[in-house]
Write a sequence for this structure.
């Protein structure tokens, strides 16, 4: 009984997501859907990105169940930001993003970063019209997360493995994590970094900048996950 | 359109949960629904509990999207354990627990620990017939989690704050975390501990043992969250 209704919801979502994608492509805007567990460091990654990505104009949509804590952190950087409170819903959907765009002037932006609700499961199903899904995962979560949450890790174009500064204080097997990801999703880029020390952030900024430049190329492009991986 | 169907699903779930609760009470079995983000340390807490709770007979139901990794970790302790793979679903429901009980002999057990799917949102809505919900949260997730995920933290009888061993390597404000929890849910017990060093585990074992003894008292008892808090 429940499944057909969910399929209808997903179909409706996909229609809105395709509208958004067309709009983003036309504007040459590179849009990233950031996914990860609560506390993986998604907002910290955005903060470090805003500090370092000086050549790019960035905007942010913050998704949370409650509070504007994350948008407040981002607003200090003086960039366009909107907080979406889902009121209990476990993921963002395309309609929420479309509504948020009503309060966010994206003209002139190069990159729109959408931080999804902290959840390693449900957001995987909801296309937001993004060019790429990126998972943010952190060392304290353990090296088995790719095996235990395969849906999300199979869909992403890149994985940011955060909190590398804690590597000597944890029983985290880096080679195992790398192998699990390479086996499940060999095309996904893996960027190991620390938002605390800054280690490894340059590669993430470079990854983002390269794709933002491609999105602006004349003649437009299809912002497919496959092209994100190039 | 979606909401009435979800309400029907929840109503159906609650009926099964009430059946399970009656069955658990009759058997004098204390049942805990363990909730938390991916990687908060739910399985590690179970491992340490099985090592230390020598006076109690424990059984475990492990919930995960995929793999039997967690049940394999528990099975090494020689206790009854069943792995439930939800096949993508973001939470356990009462029907899954009822089915799991078909493969798990709970007669003679004092405590049944149900580890829910790693998710700080969706499992809050699904009663499993448990006596208590307990949230497992960890320092690396950040001190703002009670504010950002209020639904789950308002329902729990206790919070286990794990990975205390990392306190000097993180910007985690313990007084803030304690205050947020006390303001949202003043009756919830807070147990700060480390599954790595063992610090603070005694209080958790004592909390569990006290409630298991109450559940076995003659004349039965209603295993309400309020009584869990006593």
């Amino acid at each position: 009984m429940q499944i057909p209704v969910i399929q209808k919801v997903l179909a409706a979502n996909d229609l809105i997501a395709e509208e958004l994608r067309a709009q983003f492509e036309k504007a040459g805007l590179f849009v990233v859907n950031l996914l990860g567990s609560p506390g993986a460091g998604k907002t910290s990654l955005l903060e470090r990105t805003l500090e370092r990505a000086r050549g790019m104009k960035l905007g942010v949509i913050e998704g949370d169940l409650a509070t504007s804590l994350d948008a407040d952190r981002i607003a200090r950087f003086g960039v366009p930001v909107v907080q979406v409170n889902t009121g209990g819903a476990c993921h963002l959907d395309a309609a929420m993003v479309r509504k948020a765009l009503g309060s966010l002037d994206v003209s002139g932006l190069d990159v729109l970063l959408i931080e999804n609700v902290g959840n390693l499961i449900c957001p995987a199903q909801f296309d937001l019209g993004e060019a790429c899904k990126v998972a943010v995962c952190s060392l304290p979560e353990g090296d088995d997360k790719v095996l235990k949450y395969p849906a999300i890790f199979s869909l992403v174009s890149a994985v940011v493995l955060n909190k590398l500064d804690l590597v000597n204080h944890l029983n985290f097997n880096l080679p195992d994590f790398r192998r699990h990801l390479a086996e499940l999703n060999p095309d996904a880029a893996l960027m190991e970094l620390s938002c605390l020390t800054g280690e490894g952030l340059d590669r993430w900024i470079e990854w983002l900048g390269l794709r933002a430049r491609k999105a602006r190329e004349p003649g437009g492009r299809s912002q497919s996950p496959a092209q994100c991986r190039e």
